[in-house]
Amino acid sequence: MTAPVTVAIDGPSGSGKSTVSRGLASALGLAYLDTGAMYRAATWWCRRQGVDLDSPDAVTAAVAVMPLEMGIDPAAPAVVCDGVDITAEIRGSDISSIVSVVATNLDVRAELRERQRAIIAAERRAAGFSEGRGIVAEGRDITTVVAPDADVRILLTADEEARLARRARELHGSDDPDSLAATHAEVVGRDARDSTVSTFLTAADGVVTIDSSRMDAARTLEVALGVVEQVRQEQR
Fold first, then answer.
1. Which residue spans within the chain are E strands per DSSP?
2. 55 vs 44, 48, 62, 113, 206, CA distance in Å?
3. pLDDT per residue over 116-155, tens digit each?
4. Rounded distance between C-alpha atoms, residue 155 and residue 8, angstroms
5. Please, what sign has the CA dihedral across residues 183, 41, 74, 221?
6. CA-CA-CA-CA torsion sign (127, 85, 108, 20)
7. Got the DSSP string for 203-220?
């Protein structure tokens, strides 16, 4: 690819956004941005600062000064806040269970949205991590709000059964009935809460839908690569 490319991917929990996005970035030599990790980091930061999550103004004020560094290397997308590597910690159930409180704060979303756009813009310049090749950005409102002008926009979705099974295996190592039950609230509940402030369940005009319900990660990546190539050819 000679011209910079921005690939925006959104969709619900368990659809495979992170796996496919990192795979795309690696295959195409692009940077990678996990915007969902930014909301998790903001939640971690508020807890570290002793901020009352039930106070929207206090949360907004804390996030505005959050010293966050987002790794954009798809091989090692570290998340560092206040000098602490929190990449693994923010994936724990304690953060997952409360992140929607922060993620549904509209002022927080506005703050992080500007940071996300700045990272995306930087990767279209030669001085960026990708040396101007571009970036794959994934999250819940990337195609509609953060980067509606992205060169390629994809909604990656899957049915509820497939999404629950994937997340259960990821979190509990099994998709047996107990694991599925333990995962249900996190996946379905969080999607329901987050959908009150962002659109990621249906494709907007110009967004290509990929349903990964019956595809493994390798096949889903293959399809996504095909979409990127097709859209880029049409734009030439």
1. 5-10, 31-34, 68-70, 79-81, 84-85, 134-139, 152-157, 208-211
2. 15, 15, 11, 20, 38
3. 999 999 999 998 999 999 999 999 889 999 999 999 999 9
4. 8
5. positive
6. positive
7. PPTTPEEEE-TT--HHHH
